[in-house]
Each structure stands twice: as structure tokens, then as C-alpha cells.
Give the backbone structure.
Amino acid sequence: MSSTAFISVGDLRRGRQAVGVALDAPGAPAGGCSTSGGAGKASCGSSGGPEDMPAEIWEKVKNHPCYSEEAHHHYARMHVAVAPACNIQCNYCNRKYDCSNESRPGVVSQKLTPEQAVRKVVAVASEIPQMTVLGIAGPGDALANPKKTFDTFRMLQQQAPDIKLCLSTNGLALPQMVDEICRYNLDHVTITINMVDPEVGAKIYPWIFWDHRRVTGLEAATILHRQQMLGLEMLTARGVLTKINSVLIPGINDEHLIEVNREVKKRGAFLHNIMPLISEAEHGTVFGLTGQRGPTAQELKAVQDACMGGANLMRHCRQCRADAVGLLGEDRSDEFTLDRIEQMEVVYDLDKRRAYQARVEAERQAQHAAKVEAQGAGAAADDADPGMAVLVAVATEGQGRVNQHFGHATEFQIYEVAQGSAVFVGHRRVDLYCQGGYGEDEQLPSIVAAINDCHAVLVSKIGACPRDELKAAGIEPVDEHAHEFIEKAALAWFAGYRARVAAGEIVHRPRGDARIRQGAYTAAA
């Protein structure tokens, strides 16, 4: 299909018919990864396991940290910045090169050639054997730089055949590139879709570059929408797993994202990742400079909760830089600059990588077993208030354990805990409390504010001052479950909390903004 023509209604109809055939096939997922569809018992982006999806899909996602919440505790990913050009402009984006002090999409310290990127991937994979996924996510658009993108994939298939290959795109050039994507056996593609109504899209995208010219306004948003929907349908029909990224922009597309969720599920999206707008003025984006605010953590969760029952949700995204390296939530890219790689003796030992990942998988299975056991015990316990549910913040360095000192945390993972259930629902970035070996007390108010809707914070250790501040704010600091698996620790604390409530020792009170917690958004029927 020529990129110079609009997509016809007939093209869309044929794409949807292909999607219908693919989704109706025996064993095919119904609009998501769970065997029971998007409203299944577990979301593959949060806690899904092999019992929740077909075996062939489980093989694709089990060690992919972006597609499996369990995996993100144990497996690492990296991005290589080989795609500097972009074919659209977003009001929330400002690409920055040679920048090391910002952590957000579109930012890199070094732009790479495909050859440099492959050298870097091999070096990282040799030093971080649990790195299982390589993605091209910018700093522009992977498909606006097709030669650089696919040259990188071609060389990596030869030199690092065990690494999963992914790309992220805005979708404008996607339909024309589906054959090439499938040629390189890419099983995972992320499409950023912020609207399914061009009237909304016109408020987000000032222009696109289409048919060798710049197109603006409603026409631009209409073209982008049609390309995104057709590209998604074509990928689904070819068996490629798709993750949809959506940026939540209060007052522009917050309620509209419920419709986005519904529409991408219809077209076979595997996951939907609703992310908060990053709009600090110093980043230089249009939204940042015009004062458009991002959502609060509670507003983000409310929209995500309103989409439950639609496309499966991813809630553990960290909005990574285009050159990120390591586990989600950490960035080790400074260890692998080009000058440092040149000094490294790199040996890509596939057997060593497989042996290390086998140990990682054993730890991951132990976490899963501990979670299942704890959930079973919690579900069987007597409870005077079985509908009680609370949020718990967790300080963790990875491996699915409560293993980080309160003062060393730069983020807290948030779990919603109820009888027999501990489910990851998001994360909250915070200012580092311990600096230079001492606690910075002026940071405490911002940390408390970030987790003020939580009833407890689980840590491996905590000092006296922050302990007292948290208690005064009604947040219980808990360090008696240090180094236990998170779900087991959270459910053990919750059992004790329920017992204290039942005994009249404490009074259970909902926390946070009552309007948000009661549901500021309602999913459309």
C-alpha cells in the first residue's frame, strides 16, 4: 500500500475480518492474553502465569519484563538509540540528545549507528545475563528510521539469537512495515495510541509528516488514527503481540482512554499501558510550557481501574529512556557507554547466559509458588470484613522481594491487598531520602505525600525519624518481613491488620482522596 493514500473503508473491513479469523481460532486469546479474555482471572501485564494463557503465548512473555509483571522483578531489558527521526509531533514530547539527567521517553545520552548498537547489546548481554529483551524505542520513531532499525535487528539475530526483539512506534508507518516486522520474527510491538477520536487527537498532535508534506489539525489526527487501527489489526492477524501505550492527559483524553481501551481490545491488543503525562516545564514540551498538568497517582489508578474488564492492563511501566539498560526501575546505561565498551573484553557465552537464566527462573518460580500459597491461606482465613482492601507500598531492589532500605528507595511499588489477594497496581517515584549516609528530613513530606493513600509501607529497614513521620501520617512502617517475597509479606501483614481490626485494637479507615477511591471514572457499557 502506498503511504500517499488514505486507508479505505474496505481496507479496514478486510483487516477486521482477518483479526476475527485469528481471534476465533482454537486456543487463541480473546482480546488479550488470558484464556478467558480481557476480563479473565489474571491480567498478563500484572500477574498472569502459564495457567492463564495458551502455551505458545506464555513462551513469548514469560521472561519479557514489559509483558509480564512477574518477569519484571527478575529479567532486564535494554533500548538502543538508533532511530533519531520522527514523523509526527506530540505535544508531550521533546527529544533530547546527549542528556543524562532526565528519565523519560525520547531522551538519550548517545545516538548509535546499528553497528554500535549491536556491539553495545552484546556487551550488555555478556555482563547482564538476565537481559532478555532488546527494544528500539527512539529517540524518534523506530519505523520512521526503517533501515537503521531493521539493520540492527538483522545483525542481532546473527550475533545474539536468544534475545527477544521489540520495537515501539506511533503507528503512522506501521501498515507498510508489517511484512518487514514479521520477516525478522518480532513477536512484540508497542504502538502509542492516545485517541480513537480525531477531535481528541488534534489537541495532542500538532502535525504529522505524510505524503512528503506536513499535515496539521483534524486531517493529521484522522490519518494517524486510521493508520494505527489498521496496523494493529494487521499485527494481530499475523500473530504479533501488541502493547498499546497511552499517555493520560487530564482534561484532554482521561475519560476518552476508556474508549481507547475498548477499541484496541476489539482489534486484538495484548496489553494496554496507560501512563501518566510527564509535563515539567523544564523538559521544554508544549504541554509543559503551557501548564498542562499530569495526573496524580490516584487519578491514574482511577482510569486504569475503570478500564478493568477491557483490554488487559500493564501497570508496571517505568516510561523508560530510549537508551535504558537493566531491570525496569533501574538504569545502568552509564556503565555501557561506547568508550567503556571499547575497553571491555566481550565474550558472548550463550551457554553461560542460559545457565544464569535458569537460576533466575528458579527464583521466579519460587516467588510464584510463595504467592499462590499465601493467597490460598489468605482466602481460607476467617474475616469479619471480607470486602476490606487496602494499598501497601513496597521498597524493593528486585527479585520480587521486600529487600530495600526505606532511605534508599527512589520508587515504591504499590500493591492492592485484600483477602487472599495481593495485586500489583502501580509504582510511585519519590525523592531519595538517604544522601551521603544521612537522612534528608526535608524529603520526607514529598515521600509521605506520594504514598499517602497506602495503609503500610514494607521495607527491609527504616530509621527512627521516617518511622515516626510515617506513623504520624497514618502509614504503618513494616520491617519484620524483610527479604520475604512481596505477596507473601503483604498478605501476612494484612492478616495481622485484619486481626487487629477485628479485635478492636485499631479502626480501619479508607485512605486517600475519597472521590478518587470511590471511582471518578465509570467504564462505558
